[in-house]
């Protein structure tokens, strides 16, 4: 019975450890923007509390999948990765990943060879906050008149290239871009709005419907699938161990009962035989006498 209890207890503890959450990193981008001009300097950092987690910066682009900083791109610098001259081919999804499996929030970076970009929040914004969008060119001052669009429709035109959305709500979530007359149009960037009362970390970045969006959920699905399979296997193992040990106890108990019954039957037979022999001897003695 002790073996049964200890085995089940150990297995349940193992499952609990596997189910525990790990400190998550937070990926930040400097300068804080989701769009960059070709040859701009960009620094990405994995900010976290547990330095022993061993976070690595990875990315998915149209050419490569899950490559890490230093593997043909970027230069690792502690928990950061610096890209000195970013290229349009480096547009894609970036995230931090630990040796244990958990990943950080994801950001979608767009690099353009054009002359206009839209500077917008790279991380999800909280409902009720103010958000400022900046439409800028590569060579001229960033205070030129600009038109701002959401989901393909004109919002308004601003004389200085800045537009502030006050007290954002879920309805402000969408795909934004801007246009400066005589210079061109920026790429589009997705702005995510999270619930102000959310107590858990905000959801991972939801990209616009581009070719890179299909690769966004790949690391998440891989991690969840692996952990789920291990936990399911361990639960099945615990059930088998507990059932096996219970069956052993039942068999042992039945065997003990049968053994006791057999001993009682044998004892009764011996007693009966002894009485019969004694009676025969007395009868013989009386006859002879």
TrEMBL record:
One of its GO terms (cellular component) is external side of plasma membrane. One of its GO terms (molecular function) is transmembrane signaling receptor activity. Gene3D superfamilies: Immunoglobulins (2.60.40.10). One of its GO terms (biological process) is cell surface receptor signaling pathway. InterPro entries: Ig-like_dom, Ig-like_dom_sf, Ig-like_fold, Ig_Fc_receptor, Ig_sub. Keywords: Disulfide bond, Membrane, Signal, Transmembrane, Transmembrane helix. Residues 102-194 form the Ig-like domain. The keyword Electron transport does not apply. Residues 1-25 form the signal peptide. It comes from the Eukaryota. The chain crosses the membrane at residues 216-238. Pfam families: Ig_3 (PF13927). This is Ig-like domain-containing protein. It comes from Oreochromis niloticus (Nile tilapia).
């Amino acid at each position: 019975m002790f073996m049964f209890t200890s085995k089940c207890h150990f297995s349940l503890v193992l499952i609990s450890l596997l189910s525990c959450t790990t400190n998550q990193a937070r990926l930040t981008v400097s300068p804080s923007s989701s769009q960059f001009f070709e040859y701009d300097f960009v620094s990405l950092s994995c900010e976290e509390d547990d330095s022993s987690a061993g976070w690595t910066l990875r990315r998915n682009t149209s050419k490569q999948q899950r490559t890490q900083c230093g593997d043909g791109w970027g230069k690792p610098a502690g928990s950061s990765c610096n890209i000195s001259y970013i290229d349009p081919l480096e547009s894609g999804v970036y995230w931090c990943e630990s040796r244990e499996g958990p990943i950080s929030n994801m950001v979608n970076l767009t690099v353009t060879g054009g002359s206009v970009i839209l500077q917008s929040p790279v991380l999800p914004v909280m409902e009720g906050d103010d958000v400022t969008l900046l439409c800028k060119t590569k060579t001229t001052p960033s205070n030129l008149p600009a038109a701002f669009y959401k989901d393909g429709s004109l919002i308004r035109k601003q004389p200085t290239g800045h537009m502030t959305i006050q007290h954002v709500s879920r309805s402000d979530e969408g795909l934004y871009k801007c246009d400066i007359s005589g210079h061109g149009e920026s790429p589009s960037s997705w702005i995510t709005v999270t619930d102000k009362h959310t107590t858990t970390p905000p959801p991972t970045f939801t990209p616009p419907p581009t070719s890179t969006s299909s690769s966004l959920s790949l690391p998440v699905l891989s991690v969840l699938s692996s952990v789920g399979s291990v936990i399911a296997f361990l639960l099945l193992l615990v059930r088998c161990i507990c059932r096996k040990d219970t069956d052993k106890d039942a068999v042992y108990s039945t065997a003990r009962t049968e053994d006791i019954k057999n001993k009682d039957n044998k004892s009764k037979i011996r007693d009966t035989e002894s009485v019969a022999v004694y009676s025969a001897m007395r009868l013989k003695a009386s006859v002879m006498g």
